[in-house]
């Protein structure tokens, strides 16, 4: 398993080692001991979520306020998706910057998203399924949503046609509006 920091401090791409034979493939998707040894992350899963989406479905950008905060270990378990993380931590050297990764079930690649960093994805296949292993349980009222089509963020969704997006995400504030409202986490606090 390879763990590599990617563009935004504390965000990592995890590439599993595959063992293949005539029956198929085996790989370890999550090893908390490897994350801790390789990246200094003491990740303790508290909840596991799945989201199934049609092709061209756009979900995000989502985060959780600190406290309670929520780190995510994100894996595509069926199909493929364009995964984007955005640094929402005020005072971070990469505040407002994003990182794009292609995740698919065949590769088993995962992304570790630290507290205060936003996450979203575009389903590239029908019936795409994403798994979120998260560090805290759901706490109503702590969600931070940023409009994934915020023109100032200019995220490279590269969707052919109009994406399918929830009203909640379409009406979410821009990054500038969330910053002005004081809803974002401070880099030093996470």
Automatic annotation (TrEMBL):
Residue numbers marked as site, Participates in a stacking interaction with the thymidine ring of dTDP-4-oxo-6-deoxyglucose: 138
Active site: 62 (proton acceptor), 132 (proton donor)
GO biological process: dTDP-rhamnose biosynthetic process; polysaccharide biosynthetic process
InterPro entries to which the protein is assigned, alphabetical: RmlC-like, RmlC-like_jellyroll, RmlC_Cupin_sf
Keyword DNA repair attached: no
One Gene Ontology term, aspect cellular component: cytosol
Gene Ontology molecular-function annotations: dTDP-4-dehydrorhamnose 3,5-epimerase activity
Name of protein: dTDP-4-dehydrorhamnose 3,5-epimerase RmlC
Organism per entry: Streptomyces brasiliensis
């Amino acid at each position: 398993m390879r763990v590599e920091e990617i563009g935004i401090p504390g965000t990592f791409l995890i590439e599993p080692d595959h063992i293949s034979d005539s029956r198929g493939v085996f790989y370890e998707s999550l090893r908390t001991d490897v994350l801790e040894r390789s990246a200094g992350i003491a990740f303790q899963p508290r909840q596991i979520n799945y989201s199934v989406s049609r092709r061209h479905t756009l979900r995000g950008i989502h985060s959780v306020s600190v406290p309670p905060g929520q780190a995510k270990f994100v894996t595509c378990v069926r199909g493929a998706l364009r995964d984007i993380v955005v640094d929402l931590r005020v005072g971070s050297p990469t505040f407002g910057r994003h990182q794009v990764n292609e995740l698919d079930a065949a590769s088993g690649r995962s992304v570790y998203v630290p507290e205060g960093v936003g996450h979203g994805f575009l389903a590239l296949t029908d019936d795409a399924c994403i798994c979120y292993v998260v560090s805290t349980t759901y706490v109503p009222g702590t969600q931070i949503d940023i409009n994934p089509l915020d023109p100032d963020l200019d995220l490279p969704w590269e969707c052919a046609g109009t994406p399918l997006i929830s009203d909640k995400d379409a009406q979410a504030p821009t990054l500038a509006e969330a910053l002005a409202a004081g809803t974002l986490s401070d880099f030093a606090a996470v």
